[in-house]
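Reviewer comment 2.1 asked that we show a complete input and output for one of the modelled complexes. We chose the FE2/S2 (inorganic) cluster case, as it is the one discussed in the main text.
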Amino acid sequence: MLGFDESYEICSCKKVSIEEIIVALEKEQNPTLSDIQDLTGAGTECRYCIFKEGDNGKMKKNIYCKDVLNKIKNERING
Ligand code: FES
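Response of the prediction step:
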């Protein structure tokens, strides 16, 4: 997804992969960032992995939970 293998660890604090987020959101009709946090724990510790604007880490992340969420939503709309 988005040029990353689905096994890519998007949240290093909680060790959550892109794939785990995809699977967790499968049953959600209108998934949100809160759903990602509630269902996987991603983004609930340092919170740098949620979205780019909130990344205050020294090493910026390459991809964020919000990117995955937007991609999933776009795929559902556009097939
Ligand atoms: S990297 Fe996701 S909460 Fe810290």
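The first helix runs from residue 18 to 25. We note this here for comparison with the apo prediction described in Section 3.2.
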